[in-house]
Design brief:
With 461 residues, the chain is an alpha+beta fold. It has 12 helices and 6 strands. Strand 2 and strand 3 form a beta hairpin. The chain starts with a helix and ends with a helix.
Amino acid sequence: MASSLLIQLTKTLRKKSHQSFFKKATWIHLMVITCISQAHALDFLAVYQRAQSADPNFEAARYALAVAQEKIPQARAGLLPTISANGNKSYNKAKYTFGTAPQADRNTKSWNWALQLTQPLLRAQNWQALNQAQALLEQAQAQFTQAEQDLILRVAQAYFEFDIARETMAVAQAQVKALEQQRALVQQGFAKGTHAITEVHEATSRFELARAQQLATRHELASKQADVEKIIGTLPAADLLTPLKPDATIPLPAPHDIQPWLDLARENAPAVRAQRAAIAAAEFEIKKNQAAHFPTLDLTTSYGHSYASNSAELYDYQNRTGSAQVGLQLTIPIYAGGAMNAKVREAIAERHKANAELEAATRQVSANAQQAFFGVINGVSQIDALKSAVTASRSEVKGNQVGYRLGTRLNLDVLNAERQLYTAQRDLIKARYDTLMQGLKLKAATGSLTQEDVLSLNQLF
């Protein structure tokens, strides 16, 4: 990775002056990341496209939608004719005795077949079942939309946190190198008698603490890489995730007013639409169970043949019959032990439950939209402040370097200024990613996060 290459390349600069070392190390760090990213990097769009085919959670959501789509033809089948055919054939071998007559064989044969068609004419329950299936499909479609948005958010979260961890590790590595230089200088000063032993201990303590932080950041980077791989599968070792452009501009929400976002969230959020469909499905469930009390009327028609030979009384006897029937079958439910009434009460309770869940979902998406909206607003302001901090820190580093050469500043002052610069640069990157994430969450809360946003976001990498 770029950070490991940075370590190897900066080893060649350890004999250089302290000031030029960090200047060149920073330049090399940027150049290595740029060159390797252009050759092997995966940008945000490429990671998202991998996730679409590799993420098991999204695949499960896709099949959940396919399951719901099959509910429509299943419910429609209750209104269409059914055709069935049945037949049987039997052979009976027996011996009979009649009075004092000798025992006689009476072997019998029989077979029959019939073809029957039943066309429902009046089945209110089945019509309500079809309406319910359509409502359940609408619910599944809203849930799938939410799964699509969730995939974008999870990819963005994992991608952003990986790059933040990578930058944090680069800062930790730079600090280790700086403190290693500081310790070496203090040890040389102690050998010459210009530094006290306490300064050696302090420099060593700072160095060991920086090494511990470096190990922690390395573990954090591995953890964030595992989060990416959990979504897209194995991330090839040669691949780097493309970092955010240094000049990437984070846009403010448009419109720049919270109320339209709240209205859109309450109306269009997938969680809200799914709950509205759940209420509709519960209403149809009530009607379906109430319709179970209604009479049903079916048209039935059948055609068949039968054959029988011999009997216990007659031998050499054969009977062939063909028949055709057409009729109406009326069924009037009278009493089913109270099961239908219980199902109606159950469905009414489910509707009340769905209404409560709709209210909860509406409040949640409103809160999410509000938090994300102000997260973007505050994030943009924080980015501006951190840009100024980076500029000021860079000037401070240059000033301390000049002061160190003139003898008015200590080497530790230079180290602290450079560490502050690295930290400010890392915080700026984190603030940019956090603000981008809040922008995505804002669109997700309003149900307007689509693949077009993925393409737009990819232009920032």
